[in-house]
Please model this.
Amino acid sequence: MSEMILEGGRPLLGCVRIQGSKNAALPMMAAAVLHEGEVALHNCPRIADVFSMERILRSLGAETCWEDHTLRICCRNLHGFEIDREDAASMRSSVMLMGSLLGRQGCVRIAYPGGCTIGARPIDLHLKVFQTMGARVEEQGDLLEARTPDCLWGTRICFPISSVGATENGILAAVKARGTTLLENCALEPEITHLCHFLQAMGAEIGGIGTRRLRIRGVRILRDAQFWVPPDRIVAGTYLYAAAATRGKVELLDVPLGEIASILRVYEKMGGQWECNGGKLKADASGVRRMVEYTRTQCYPGFPTDMQSVLMAVLLTIPGKGRIREEIFEDRLKTAGELKKLGGRIHTAGRDAWIIGGGPLTGARVEARDLRGGAALAVAALAASGTTVIGNAGFVERGYEAIDADLAGLGARIEMR
Ligand code: EPZ
Model:
């Protein structure tokens, strides 16, 4: 796997455009399976996870092609229903194909999905949705097979906890089901709203978009559609916090302002300033100096778990004592161990991390353990003196299209090899 080499110690200055959202694009790609025709996704990020999903779609018989950042997917001749074990293991979002393949052809076989190792990531809620809609699900070792005797049936499903993926799978399964499906206690993450809007463009009938209660009336046929993948709120947050860690001044173009409110609130608490005009966010982080005493990750619209390790990296640069509590995933504080190698003073216990910030950070050899953790190491490295080498940088490329070029454009000394 590749390495990222950074030389830190200088403020980020300049302008960068925010790429399309990974977690919006992936379920949209899975949704393409529902339609016996073509969809086009504009502003689609050219990242490893999108390429993995593209490979899976092709293995099922879909045709795909890229023109710059437009990805066209044609599933007219889709024939397969079995997802290769290695492909399924390559990323979590492979599980989205369960809902769409069941919705399209009533059967799917897939190994348990992989993804970042951030604690147990069960899919019981996804399977419950399919079963409630009439599918039979069988497990043989790590292989799952789901089949409908005739079709999926619309019904009422109330999620016991908020799950982004289970909500998305419920939506995908319901779009072509017979009758109306009521999904209650849905997750509110913006990527769900984007998926619904994309499906609407394809002709799906979905009510209650943006609320916890979605009502989906099954349709028999969908239509060709094109859609603009919205910008990535976590990439925007990462670059904003990279500016904060280095006390820089940056302009972020195409920022999904409404979606990063909680990220901005924490940035303001640190002393960061910003203004936004027409999607351009100007951030002046030269005044960042206040420790944020307590932050806990929450479902949207709370502070996102995907920003937790990046926040940890920024807090290390601010004098004082702060605490971060990870509420969503049971084992997502692993990056703390790597940040310590840069001189970070962090103590973790269970779901809590205590950070004593303001001490010197010094470049070292560290290893990315997951996608966002890898980005957090880059943020800390930018604030550290000397050179940092981040191993397993391929993790970062799963979600950031060109983090090296983006940060270099902001004046960072960075190289991928
Ligand atoms: C999505 O994962 C994102 N992935 C994650 O982003 C993100 O961290 C997460 O939502 C939370 O916002 C994609 O969109 C591809 P969940 P997902 O189902 O859908 C439990 C990144 O870095 N749960 O909302 O897998 C689960 O264990 C990634 O881009 C069950 O118990 O998350 C967790 O504690 C990593 N049973 C909680 O729900 C289930 O069947 C929330 O998970 C499903 C989930």
Q: What stands out?
A: Residues 41 and 227 are 5 Å apart (CA to CA). Residues 22-23, 26, 92-93, 116, 120-126, 161, 163-166, 187, 189, 191, 305-306, 328-329, 371-372, 399 surround EPZ (CB under 6 Å). The radius of gyration is 21 Å. The mean pLDDT is 96.
